[in-house]
Amino acid sequence: MTSEIKFALLNNSEKSLNDVKGLLESCHLKVDRQVDLFAVAYTDNNDIIACAGLFHNIIKCVAISPEYRGENLTSRLINEIILYAADRGVFHLFLYTKPENIRVFEKCGFYPLVVIPELATFMENTPVGIKGYCEKLSQKQHVGKRIGSIVMNANPFTLGHQYLVEFAAKQCDWLYVFVVSEDSSMFSFKDRFRLVQEGTSSIANVTVLSSSEYIVSKATFPSYFLKEKADVDHAITGIDLLVFRNYIAPSLNIMSRFVGTEPFSPITDKYNHGMKYWLSEYQTSSPTINVIEIERKKINGTPISATAVRYFLKENNLEEVKKLVPETTWAFLKENFATNSREVL
Amino acid sequence: MKIIKDAIAGTLESSDLQVKVSPQDNLEIVIHSNVMHQFGEKIADVVKETLNKLQVAEGLIIIEDKGALDCAIRARVETAVLRGAEVTELNWSLLK
Prior knowledge:
- The structure holds 2 protein chains of 2 kinds.
- Helix content of chain A is 39%, strand content 21%.
- Chain A has 11 helices and 14 strands.
- In chain A, strand 11 (256-260), helix 8 and strand 12 (290-294) form a beta-alpha-beta unit.
- In chain A, helix 4 packs across helix 7, helix 7 (229-252) crosses helix 8 and helix 9 (306-314) packs antiparallel against helix 10.
- Chain A is globular.
- Chain B is α+β, with helices and mostly antiparallel strands.
- Chain B has one domain (7-88): Ribosomal Protein S5, domain 2 (2-Layer Sandwich), CATH 3.30.230.
- In chain B, 34% of the residues lie in helices and 25% in strands.
- Chain B contains 2 helices and 4 strands, in the order E-E-E-H-E-H.
- In chain B, helix 1 (36-53) links the parallel strand 3 and strand 4.
- In chain B, helix 1 packs across helix 2.
- The radius of gyration of chain B is 12 Å and the shape is globular.
- The model of chain B has no long low-confidence stretch (mean pLDDT 93).
- Chain A binds chain B through residues 72, 75-76, 78-79, 82-83, 86, 89, 91, 107-109, 126-128, and chain B through 6-8, 11-14, 18, 20, 22, 28, 30, 32, 60, 62, 64.
């Protein structure tokens, strides 16, 4: 049977797109809108019997029609995707799947990074990916008893962020600030990273680091294979935090993670709760990490947030923006959002 | 030969292998095989010998072996290295 099966990139005809959708649905999966490339397997009758999708460096929407399972179609399909990705210059690939599929993807050269029991697994297609990253991290290790950390998007870096860093740095011998490296924010990673560096340069015991691709983003997590919204949240948070706890924290001896309270966004507030669970309470072989939640800095009774800064920027209300950001960020914003900024200066 | 970019060769099908090479300061070879117990050392020997012949002294070489014969291992390693080293004109005598 297998000899009649051919592999190809999906042509964008409506029929094939519908076929893929139908196949995914028959496997109880939804189409992930981010996927911009599908590899498919089809029979002589042009029936699509298997598919695998790609978004950036993440493999998504892998499905095999039930009557063709057990013929090793997955590894041939994944192989196609690996080659297409290589053509695009992408060699380091990730995927999320249910824990019961780990074996299938191990056969395709993928290695599990963390497993959230019964829900999801995060895998990468190299046996030395996270190991290499952690080795590089540990070269930046500082000696000290109390090593702390903060993960921030800093979109952009506000007085609130600065306050959190200053507060945490006082409690620690050394503090690592990870800036989320993914570019799905208003400000680019390059700019965000620079603003964090500039805004913390006066604090002696701080290192600013890029979060790397190992800090999972909500924007790229495929939720199509989990049915309940609560399961999705649980899995995303768990994967992200266990990667941090099991790999990143040990390579820098990080013992605590600082975070500001979240009075505005229920999602982030939930994430803070998840942080306590996955970093401090959840049982795993890695050491626990102390989560320290600090009340956010307020100005005139209102907690400072990057969301507010972005809002005021869009409204062109630079007077309000200026109140919420440090000098360093203000200098950058002034330069890049210069329209009408004169009257404020 | 110096590996200057990521490259890949081969497949994950039975009796074949996939070879991935990346630039790196030292030479690191990582082998995974479904016949690791029986042939792990032999596979490593063939890989090292092929790298030697191509004068590859540094790079990360990752092998996903699915029970390939020595000749397949050699061919896939050669192809991955040549792609990773962006070799356009081949000195065939190296590959003898």
